[in-house]
Amino acid sequence: MPILREAESAGLAAASEVLLAVRVELPSLTGQRSDQLFLELQEEVADALGLADSDVLMAEVSSAGRTIAWTGEGAARRTRRAARRRGPLGSWRAPGIER
Predict the structure, then answer these.
(1) 3-state SS class at 5
(2) Where do runs of H (alpha helix) occur along the chain?
(3) Residue 41 near residue 30, CB atoms below 8 Å
(4) Separation of alpha carbons 12 and 65, rounded Å
(5) Residue 20 and residue 24: Cα distance in Å, rounded?
(6) How far apart are CA 38 and CA 27, in angstroms?
(7) Cβ atoms within 10 A of the Cβ of 15, count?
(8) Whose CA is closest to 54, among 68, 67, 66, 39?
(9) pLDDT tens sequence across 49-93
(10) Where are the domains of the chain?
(11) What Å distances lie between residue 29 and 16, 57, 76, 92, 93, CA to CA?
Protein backbone atom coordinates (compact mmCIF):
# COMPACT_ATOMS: atom_id res chain seq x y z
CA MET A 1 0.00 0.00 0.00
CA PRO A 2 1.43 3.39 -0.93
CA ILE A 3 2.08 5.90 1.82
CA LEU A 4 0.06 8.56 -0.01
CA ARG A 5 -3.28 7.78 -1.58
CA GLU A 6 -3.96 9.15 -5.05
CA ALA A 7 -6.44 11.77 -3.80
CA GLU A 8 -4.00 12.84 -1.08
CA SER A 9 -1.24 13.27 -3.62
CA ALA A 10 -3.49 15.45 -5.77
CA GLY A 11 -4.53 17.46 -2.71
CA LEU A 12 -0.90 18.02 -1.74
CA ALA A 13 -0.07 19.19 -5.25
CA ALA A 14 -2.95 21.69 -5.21
CA ALA A 15 -2.02 22.94 -1.73
CA SER A 16 1.61 23.34 -2.76
CA GLU A 17 0.56 25.36 -5.81
CA VAL A 18 -1.40 27.79 -3.62
CA LEU A 19 1.49 28.33 -1.22
CA LEU A 20 4.03 28.58 -4.02
CA ALA A 21 1.95 31.18 -5.86
CA VAL A 22 1.82 33.31 -2.72
CA ARG A 23 5.53 32.87 -2.07
CA VAL A 24 6.42 33.87 -5.63
CA GLU A 25 4.43 37.11 -5.30
CA LEU A 26 6.08 38.25 -2.07
CA PRO A 27 9.49 39.29 -3.48
CA SER A 28 7.91 41.16 -6.37
CA LEU A 29 5.79 43.17 -3.93
CA THR A 30 8.40 43.77 -1.25
CA GLY A 31 11.54 44.00 -3.37
CA GLN A 32 13.28 41.49 -1.11
CA ARG A 33 13.24 37.79 -0.33
CA SER A 34 10.51 36.95 2.12
CA ASP A 35 8.56 33.92 3.26
CA GLN A 36 6.26 35.87 5.55
CA LEU A 37 2.86 37.07 4.44
CA PHE A 38 2.26 40.09 6.63
CA LEU A 39 -1.20 41.55 7.09
CA GLU A 40 -0.17 44.68 5.20
CA LEU A 41 0.62 42.64 2.08
CA GLN A 42 -2.40 40.34 2.00
CA GLU A 43 -4.59 42.59 -0.13
CA GLU A 44 -1.79 43.21 -2.65
CA VAL A 45 -1.02 39.50 -2.92
CA ALA A 46 -4.72 38.72 -3.36
CA ASP A 47 -4.92 41.29 -6.18
CA ALA A 48 -1.77 39.92 -7.84
CA LEU A 49 -3.24 36.41 -7.78
CA GLY A 50 -6.60 37.55 -9.12
CA LEU A 51 -8.51 36.80 -5.94
CA ALA A 52 -11.48 38.83 -4.70
CA ASP A 53 -9.83 40.03 -1.50
CA SER A 54 -7.47 39.16 1.33
CA ASP A 55 -10.13 37.07 3.08
CA VAL A 56 -10.30 34.74 0.08
CA LEU A 57 -6.50 34.62 -0.06
CA MET A 58 -6.18 33.71 3.60
CA ALA A 59 -8.94 31.10 3.33
CA GLU A 60 -6.96 29.45 0.51
CA VAL A 61 -3.67 29.68 2.42
CA SER A 62 -5.29 28.25 5.55
CA SER A 63 -6.93 25.43 3.61
CA ALA A 64 -3.62 24.59 1.92
CA GLY A 65 -1.86 24.45 5.28
CA ARG A 66 -4.53 22.19 6.76
CA THR A 67 -4.38 19.88 3.75
CA ILE A 68 -0.62 19.52 4.10
CA ALA A 69 -0.81 18.95 7.86
CA TRP A 70 -3.65 16.43 7.73
CA THR A 71 -2.12 14.54 4.82
CA GLY A 72 1.23 14.35 6.60
CA GLU A 73 -0.40 13.10 9.79
CA GLY A 74 -2.35 10.46 7.88
CA ALA A 75 0.73 9.27 6.01
CA ALA A 76 2.74 9.09 9.24
CA ARG A 77 -0.03 7.12 10.94
CA ARG A 78 -0.23 4.61 8.04
CA THR A 79 3.56 4.27 8.03
CA ARG A 80 3.64 3.52 11.76
CA ARG A 81 0.86 0.93 11.38
CA ALA A 82 2.63 -0.73 8.46
CA ALA A 83 5.90 -0.84 10.40
CA ARG A 84 4.19 -2.55 13.35
CA ARG A 85 2.63 -5.17 11.06
CA ARG A 86 5.82 -5.90 9.16
CA GLY A 87 8.29 -5.72 11.99
CA PRO A 88 11.54 -3.78 11.79
CA LEU A 89 11.79 -1.53 8.74
CA GLY A 90 14.98 -3.27 7.70
CA SER A 91 13.09 -6.50 7.08
CA TRP A 92 10.57 -4.90 4.71
CA ARG A 93 11.11 -5.16 0.96
CA ALA A 94 9.20 -3.78 -1.98
CA PRO A 95 7.19 -6.32 -3.98
CA GLY A 96 9.42 -8.32 -6.28
CA ILE A 97 12.62 -7.69 -4.30
CA GLU A 98 14.24 -10.83 -3.00
CA ARG A 99 17.20 -11.43 -0.80
Answers:
(1) coil
(2) 6-30, 39-48, 54-86
(3) yes
(4) 10
(5) 6
(6) 12
(7) 21
(8) 39
(9) 999 999 999 999 999 999 999 999 999 998 888 877 765 555 566
(10) 6-84
(11) 20, 15, 37, 49, 49
